[in-house]
Amino acid sequence: MILYCTILLNIFSVIRSEYNYDQQGADWTGTCRYGRNQSPIDLTQKHATMKHLPRIEFEKYDLALRTPLLLVNNGHTAHMELPPVGHIKGGMLRGKFVPQSVHFHWGSLISKGSEHAINNERYDAEIHIIHKNSRYWDKSVGEASQLPNGIAVLAVMIKSVLREEESELNKVFEALPQIIPYKSNTTIYGRLTMKQLLGNIDTGKFYTYKGSLTTPDCTELVTWTVFKEVVSIRLSLIANFWSLTNSHGQPLINNYRELQDIHRRKVYYRSCDVLKKLLDWW
User: Fold this and answer.
1) Is residue 76 among the annotated active site residues?
2) How many angstroms separate the CA atoms of 206 and 43, rounded?
3) Band of the pLDDT at 17, cuts 50, 70, 90?
4) For position 8, what pLDDT does the model report?
5) What is the C-alpha separation between 41 and 207, in angstroms, rounded?
6) Residue 271: what pLDDT?
7) Domain regions of the chain by residue span
């Protein structure tokens, strides 16, 4: 029985590592195809439920992360492990969630690459900061993703601009030419905080809903917080993504999943403006 389970796990590992974005996930199987709570989705203020949610609280997000940080081309994205320092809570989160990693989704010269859309608009790229519920401190991210309320993801949209934009995020984008080949990596030095990974956006306005991982096996135990405010990054830096290559030596572009049906899920929207109106009414 143990041998049988080991074989199944090995097969699952191979399947998980071999997925691609040739059809933006339309050819993925299992929960990815048949799940009813899949991500990403189109987030529209018109159809979202306005809810008096608490702000997301960021504990120790303003402290410098221990460097160097390792940025890796894993064949699917540019991925960076994060030291488990601090936590987030609030919003629709149940408990405290500790940062684990950050990765990106992007398009190409002729297509936008964010996974979520906001009010029917896709952006050039999207940042995902993965967090694990602190109650599962002894579990891996993969194990926690299979457990109730195990994973929370913060998502930030990126738009391209032509003029220079000052951002500590530029350190990450400037390092991308060092990880063009599959499995290559580079180190990022200097001061960088979790708050800077969010692009210093206003975190008071966000959409939140229950969804899934956006890569196989698309497990549906993820709490998403997608911020409305967008980060501006110079186009020439975003273009660095387009030079990366996958495990077959092909350009790693358009690594986003197609939008999924919302079905009967509730999507909530928290806005400072909504809170002000409620207070004024009260």
Assistant:
1) yes
2) 10
3) low
4) 37
5) 11
6) 87
7) 2-281
Regarding beta strands 268-270 and 78-81, do their DSSP bridges make them parallel or antiparallel, or are they unpaired? unpaired
pLDDT for position 166: 77
- Determine whether 19 is an active site residue: no
Write the DSSP symbol of residue 132: E
Please tell me which residue in 19, 61, 76, 103 is annotated as part of the active site: 76
Question: 246-277 pLDDT, tens per residue?
Answer: 999 999 999 999 999 999 999 999 987 555 55
Residue showing tokens 């694990």: 132
CB atoms within 10 A of CB 11: 10
Flag whether the pTM goes above 0.85: yes
DSSP designation for 141: H
* Percent of the chain predicted with pLDDT > 70: 90
Burial label, 173 (beta-carbon count in 10 A; 0-12, 13-18, 19+): buried
Give me the catalytic one of 19, 61, 123, 136. Answer: 136
The whole-angstrom separation of Cα 231 and Cα 198 is 8
* CATH code matching the domain that covers 2-281, chosen among 3.30.750.24, 3.10.50.30, 3.30.420.40, 3.10.200.10: 3.10.200.10
pLDDT at 211: 98
Measured CA to CA, the distance from residue 96 to residue 149 in angstroms comes to 10
Where does 23-150 show beta strands of DSSP type E?
42-43, 49-50, 57-59, 69-73, 78-81, 87-89, 97-106, 117-118, 125-133
